[in-house]
Each structure stands twice: as structure tokens, then as C-alpha cells.
Specification:
With 275 residues, the chain is α/β, with parallel strands linked by helices. The protein has a single domain (8-272), classed as 4-Layer Sandwich (Purple Acid Phosphatase, chain A, domain 2). It has helices at residues 25-38, 55-71, 88-95, 127-139, 171-180, and strands at residues 8-13, 42-46, 73-77, 100-104, 109-113, 146-150, 185-188, 195-199, 202-206, 222-228, 232-239, 245-256, 259-265. Strands 3-2-1-10-11-12-13 form a 7-stranded mixed sheet, with helices on one face. A 6-stranded mixed sheet has the order 4-5-6-7-9-8, with helices on one face. Strand 1 (8-13), helix 1 and strand 2 (42-46) form a beta-alpha-beta unit. Helix 1 packs parallel to helix 2 and helix 2 (55-71) runs parallel beside helix 3. The longest helix has 17 residues, at 55-71. 46% of the residues are buried. The structure holds fe (ii) ion (FE2) (2 copies). One fe (ii) ion is lined by residues 15, 17, 48, 79, 81, 190, 192.
Length: 275
């Protein structure tokens, strides 16, 4: 990440699930006011905007997203719930493309979004076509740019998320590609359990559910915040109910012969964090 020339404050939200019986309007309004106060540079929504992919759920999600967009630039990928009932038609009509590449030249960051969902199944899949597309996009990112890839499903198993199911079927191929191409940060959501882990110089960060009570064990509604600058990155967990923020990881960017690698320190088990 050599060459970053500004600090970037990123709010990473996931699994807002409009239409879920456990979805909470109160949590939505708390989240909106916390985001407004945080005044981030970028907001990322890593899928499961809806519960069943229905139009009324998408319309509510769109209203929420319009509010987020008035606070910051917003990047969004779909989740498995969004692809239920041919829901990706509504995603494309109301939200935007399910894949994207955004190059932020001001802070030398490339953000790539992938669609890991498939119609009416909870398992994820990137697929040969998207893997090829991702490789070609990553190859074109200038060497001194940071790269962030976003998709909904877990890349690797996450503690406290129960039995391994609803997985990314081709996660091995995707993992190898992300490592080969020197991707710096991977963001996702899915099982509503926050997690941070570093793999081969790549920070893999999952967010919990920000606005529902579809929780595992003693987990709480939460989202993530990342603060990047030219030499390091701080990852924080924010509890939606209270707005209380807890630091979960810090990373330094270290230049090596094969490019810039991320080293982590102060890495904590995000799922054990309490407000
Ligand atoms: Fe979800
Ligand atoms: Fe999901």
C-alpha cells in the first residue's frame, strides 16, 4: 500500500436484511445516525440487503442506501438472501451492478465487488467466468495501489458460526487467486459473526449483522470500521445498539520483493468482543 496519500475512513456494514422478522427499525436509525456522525469516506455493504429478495424489501433497502449515499460513496454487493425469488433483477434495477471495479486514484486504492450469490440457494459460488474476470481486473491494478475485494460469503471458516454450511463452493480457487494477485483486504459478511484474520499478507475481514437480531450465541448487532493511511490500518468493531467501538486488529503495510504485504498485530477474536 505504498503511496497512500490520505487517511481513509471506511464503514463496513453487512446483513441489514430488510424484511427479516428480527430486523429492527430502531437499529437502522441508530446505525444511520452513527454513520452520519462518523462521516466516513466510503461505506461498504457486503450483501444480504433483504430477507427474501422481494421488491418491497428492496424498496426499503434502497431508501436506507440513499441515506447512506448522502453520507459517503457507497459500494454494494448482493448476498444469498438477495438472490432469492429472482431478487437480483430488483438488485440490478434498484441498487446497481452486482460486480464492479472502482479505482480511487486519490488514495491509490482499487475496490472490486463480486457476486457470490446464486438463485435460491444459500451456498455461494464465484464461478469460472467471474474468477477470470477478477484475475484480469487485478492484473490491471497498478502495483503501488492497494486492492480490496468484496463478496458476501465466507472465504474461510469463521469461529462461532456453527456447522460449516452455506459455504463458498469454490473458495479454494478464489483464495489462491486473491493470494497470487497480492490482494490486501477481503471484506464479507454472511453468517452474522464478525471476524478478522490475516492470511498470506491479506486481511480477511467479515462483518456481523448490523440491524437484525438473527444472532448466534451471545453475539450482538454490529458492523466494522476500517481506518487506513499510508503505513497502517486499524479495524474496529462497532456495536449498533450503543455505538460503542472496540479495536479488533491493527495492521502494518510492509514492502517486500513481491509487493506490499500486510502484517497484523493486536489481533483479537472479534466474536468475543463485548460493548
Ligand atoms: Fe445474512
Ligand atoms: Fe448470507
Amino acid at each position: 500500500m505504498e503511496g497512500y496519500n490520505m487517511e481513509k475512513n471506511i464503514v463496513h456494514i453487512s446483513d441489514v436484511h430488510f424484511g427479516d422478522p428480527t430486523h429492527s427499525d430502531d437499529l437502522v436509525s441508530k446505525l444511520k445516525s452513527q454513520v452520519e456522525e462518523e462521516n466516513p469516506d466510503v461505506i461498504i455493504l457486503s450483501g444480504d440487503l433483504t430477507y427474501s429478495g422481494f421488491i418491497n424489501e428492496y424498496l426499503e433497502a434502497k431508501e436506507f442506501i440513499e441515506d447512506l449515499k448522502s453520507a459517503a460513496e457507497t459500494y454494494i454487493v448482493p448476498g444469498n438472501h438477495d438472490a432469492r425469488n429472482v431478487g437480483l433483477e430488483h438488485f440490478r434495477n434498484l441498487i446497481g451492478d452486482t460486480n464492479f471495479v472502482k479505482i480511487d486514484r486519490s488514495c491509490k486504492l482499487a475496490v472490486i465487488g463480486l457476486n457470490s450469490s446464486r438463485p435460491d440457494v444459500d451456498d455461494g459460488n464465484i464461478g469460472a467466468f467471474q474468477l477470470k474476470w477478477l484475475k484480469s481486473k487485478l492484473e490491471r491494478v497498478p502495483k503501488n495501489f492497494g486492492t480490496m475485494v468484496i463478496f458476501h460469503h465466507h472465504l474461510i471458516p469463521i469461529p462461532q458460526s456453527g456447522r460449516e454450511r452455506n459455504i463458498l463452493l469454490d473458495s479454494g480457487d478464489l483464495l489462491q487467486l486473491l493470494i497470487d494477485e497480492g490482494v490486501d483486504i477481503v471484506l464479507g459478511g454472511h453468517k452474522h459473526v464478525p471476524n478478522v484474520v490475516t492470511l498470506e499478507g491479506m486481511a480477511v475481514i467479515n462483518a456481523g449483522t448490523a440491524t437484525t437480531r438473527r444472532l448466534r450465541g451471545t453475539g450482538l448487532p454490529c458492523y466494522n470500521q476500517l481506518i487506513l493511511n499510508e503505513v497502517d490500518m486499524e479495524a474496529n468493531l462497532v456495536f449498533t445498539e450503543s455505538g460503542i467501538k472496540r479495536n479488533v486488529a491493527n495492521y502494518t503495510f510492509v514492502e517486500t520483493d513481491s509487493g506490499v504485504k500486510i502484517h497484523s498485530y493486536n489481533h483479537k477474536a472479534a466474536f468475543r468482543m463485548k460493548p
